[in-house]
Each structure stands twice: as structure tokens, then as C-alpha cells.
Design goal:
disordered N terminus, 5 helices, Arc Repressor Mutant, subunit A, three-stranded antiparallel beta sheet, single chain, alpha+beta
Amino acid sequence: MSDDGLDEHCCSEEESCLCPVEGLIDVISKKWAICIISHLGNKEEGYRFNELQRSLEGISPKSLSDRLKELDEEDLVHREVEDTVPPKVTYTLTEDGKQLHSRLKPLVRWVNERQ
């Protein structure tokens, strides 16, 4: 990566380069990912798994679990496990997740205005 933020392996100064965000785009473009980020971003104290599933009508437990795992791996979602029986797991956005949420709001607003 050069000092100006360009990846010299796939970009030149004349080109717009998306290489550094390719992995992130792959994750957030999957079905339900933006909805999950949106819901978590609207509730500061976070969600328990079943609560989040109920708020996302139509999502299967497997899809929710898969998306949460991928978002956690991208450091967008934080999974906190309390040492209780049974364990209490709460999902919240990380700082990066909160920044992404704030940047997605105008896009979501624009999409809603078009409908």
C-alpha cells in the first residue's frame, strides 16, 4: 500500500480501487447483513439472539448465526458472552460497525424514498 492509500498491485492513480474493501463488501452485501447492522445500530444495549431474530421477520436461525459470525470476523459486531447458566450472549456493534451504520443511514433513506 502506498502513502496515498492506493494498492499499487491493482490500482493506479487514475483508477478507482476497491481492492482493500473487497472482503468487507462481500460480507455486508450478503442477504440480511445490512438489516442486522441497522437493527444493532438502533439499539445501544444490543440484542440477544432470539430477540434479534424476532425483530428480523423471515430470517432463519442459521442465516442469522452465519451473518453474525461473518460480521464478528470483520470486527463489525461484538459478541459478548456472560458467564451464566445458560450463557447470556449479547450482540452489539463495534466502533467500526457503528461507523458503518452511520454511513449506511443515507443509503437506506435514499432507498426508502425511491419506493
